[in-house]
Amino acid sequence: MSPDGGSLPSAVKQRFGHLLPGGPRSALAVSGLLLLFYVSSFNYRYSQDSSDLHRSVALNWRALWPLSCSPMASAPTNLSHIVFGIVGSLNTWKGRKAYLESWWRPNVSRGYLFLDGPPENESLLCPFTCPALRINENITHWDIYPKIKYPIQIRMVRSIVEAFRQGDQDIRWFVMADDDSMLFVDNIVEVLSKYDHTKYFYLGASSETILSNAVFTFEMGFGGAGFALSYPLVAAMAKKLDGCIKRYPHSRSADYLTYICILDLGVAISPQKGFHQIDLRGNIAGLLSSHPQSPFLSLHHINIVDPIFPSMNRSESISHLMKSARVDQSRLAQQTICYQREMNWSVSVSWGYSAHIYESILPRYILRKPIETFSPWKEKAKWPMFMFNTRPGNSTNPCEVPHWFFFESIERQNEDDIVTTYSRAAKHGLGPCSLGGSHSADHINRLQVFSPAKTRLEVN
Q1: N or C: which terminal CB in the chain sees fewer CB atoms within 10 Å?
Q2: Pairing of strands 82-87, 173-178
Q3: Measured at the alpha carbon of residue 177, what is the angle toward residues 175 and 180, in degrees to the nearest 5?
Q4: InterPro entries from the entry (predicted)?
């Protein structure tokens, strides 16, 4: 099996071999991950793989980019330095409450849930499992209010400065998202810690679909996916945002209005992979199984796409995903590719979510492309539809279609290893691959992946 980068020390190689029928033991490793295939009577173990003008310009530049000590001299960014602003509405909150509760950390996370009115039913309150509830400010007294075409969008944008005006101390970042989004806070902390929080930063990601970006802009952070704003930038927005809203009262998108108001301050987006708008429909397993090699930060529209695990509803699926996320978010959905040459297999693992076995040797540039199990947000969208390359989701070639396995369980085997188990989703049903040297994988029912118990601090 060829590792996807790197190898383990010889002592580890000796510890984790794999036993092939009628063959000798051999030691294999990739990215610190080891695979264990369960069969009826054999255990197959694999490893994974100066002028006045000049002075004037300089002064303006300093005003835009606040000068302060380097963040390297201060304490590293941690969860307490982040305020989460979650925006929802009374009409949808009942069905989305569980999504927020799945990732929120009571008494640890800091933030606010903004609604357009107080819930009448006490069951919709969650003082111990959700952010503190805040009702958005009433702006109907504004002279310009009759000209505001989409008041809901304005309310969502103003939630940014309303969160700022709560006056929390020792804050470096504000992370905004919708109430139907999942956030992976450990990964968010890891990403934000790499940026200078004393400067103006607007971090976010575009949509997965070309049409959504073309309708608005390719340079905007989509709010459902979530975006992060540094404290100095939000402080500047707090002074200027209402004026910006009054300049653009006809804006029909909160995300676009946020973008142009930040741009009016002279700040462009810093694109950050890992925020997922999920402007997709149907089964997104193909996307989640080939996640880009960057921290998995968010997952939006989970109430619209199919449940992400077979035989589970949406609520169960989210809770199930959080089982692996709570143990090690840095590895969550990170793809590792390796090969079992003796069986002529390619193996792809999306840690904590899924695993694939292909009955042929497929190059990495193919396996890194998501299988198109999903469809675009707009049903009549024409090719090209996505911001990334895909593989056909309707292939019937048994050499190209994987055996699908999904995350089943996670446990600490000892002080050194975390073991994730993936179970078969369904029968392959296509017969064996006819390429010479290929072997059927129909008899494999489970895979186990061994990874170091120490959380990975860098995700390349």
Answers
A1: C
A2: parallel
A3: 150
A4: DUF604
Distance CA 284, CA 308 (A): 7
Q: Which fold has domain 75-271?
A: Spore Coat Polysaccharide Biosynthesis Protein SpsA; Chain A (3.90.550)
What sign does the CA torsion over 215, 221, 226, 232 have? negative
Cβ–Cβ under 8 Å, residues 283 and 235: no
Quote the CA–CA distance of 76 and 74 in Å, as a whole number.
6
Domain ranges of the chain: 10-48+310-452, 75-271
Cis amide bond preceding 127, omega within 30: no
Backbone dihedral angles phi then psi of residue 352, each to the nearest 5 degrees: 80, 5
Residue 79's CB: how many other CB atoms inside 10 A?
15
Cα separations in angstroms, 398 against 335, 429, 432? 22, 9, 6
The two beta strands, 82-87 and 110-115, are parallel
Q: Are 237 and 64 in contact (CB under 8 A)?
A: no
Whether 431 contacts 398, CB under 8 Å: yes
What's CA 438's distance to the chain center, in Å?
35
Regions of the chain short of the pLDDT cut 70: 1-73, 455-460
Please give the helix or strand (H or E) that residue 134 lies within, else none.
Answer: strand 132-135
Residues contacting 394, CB < 8 A, separation 6+: none
User: Using the 8-state DSSP alphabet, how is residue 68 labeled?
Assistant: -
d(CA 345, CA 363): 11
Contact 197, 203 (CB under 8 A): no
Q: Strand 227-230's sheet: what is its strand order? A: 132-135, 110-115, 82-87, 173-178, 227-230, 202-204, 270-271
**pTM, to two decimals:** 0.84
CB 279 within 8 A of CB 214: no
Cis peptide before 119 (omega within 30 of 0): no
**Distance separating alpha carbons of residues 396 and 428, to the nearest angstrom:** 10
Half-sphere exposure of 120 (CA within 13 A, CB side): 2
C-alpha 3/C-alpha 5 separation (Å) is: 5
DSSP states of 326-382: HH-GGGTT-EEEEEETTTTEEEEEETTTEEEEESS---HHHHTSPB--EEESSTT--
Both tokens of 19, joined, read 């036993």
- Distance, in Å, from the CA atom of 268 to the CA atom of 220, rounded to the nearest integer, reads 9
Q: What is the pLDDT of residues 339-349, one digit of tens each?
A: 999 999 999 99
Q: How far apart are CA 282 and CA 307, in angstroms?
A: 9
What is the DSSP secondary structure assignment for residue 9, as one 8-state letter?
-
